[in-house]
Design brief:
The chain has 139 residues and is an all-alpha fold. The chain has six helices and no strands. The protein has two domains: 85 residues, no CATH class; 46 residues.
Length: 139
């Protein structure tokens, strides 16, 4: 599943670069609209939302996370992708687990175990190798 996710991530980046002549906002809006079209039937089948009554606070949170946080993140992703390329943009995804560990320790009081430190070390070593390979000149 990890390889499938990574493969889809790269395919999405390549396809985005193929349509890089379009405006950033149009690409972002189009992707989010298609995601909604695809996910609503899937979520309806799996989660059965008609059987729940969410509170107004949770509904506002979902709308905020969907429109503001996700929308801004996708706008930034496409801007980075268009300006810096796919290899640079893929390096940004290595930062997610690092900041996840730090912020969960600070704000959620989660423990940093040996497993977490080993995983963090693996991410840092992977980042080092990617950066080292990116510095080599092709002759």
């Amino acid at each position: 599943m990890i390889l499938l996710g990574s493969t889809c991530y790269v395919i999405g980046g390549v396809l985005t670069l193929k349509i890089s002549d379009k405006k950033n906002e149009n690409v972002t809006g189009s992707i989010l609209i298609w995601a909604i079209i695809i996910l609503i039937p899937l979520v309806s089948f799996i989660e059965k939302p008609w059987e729940t009554t969410p509170s107004i606070e949770s509904s506002i949170s979902v709308v905020y996370l969907g429109l503001v946080s996700t929308g801004l993140a996708w706008l930034l992703r496409f801007r980075i992708l268009k300006n810096n390329g796919l290899i640079f943009q893929s390096q940004v995804s290595y930062l997610i687990p690092i900041f996840g560990i730090i912020l969960s320790y600070i704000f959620l009081d989660e423990l940093i175990t040996d497993k977490v430190l080993t995983s963090l070390l693996a991410v840092l070593v992977g980042l080092y190798f990617v950066k080292k390979a990116g510095n080599k000149k092709i002759t």
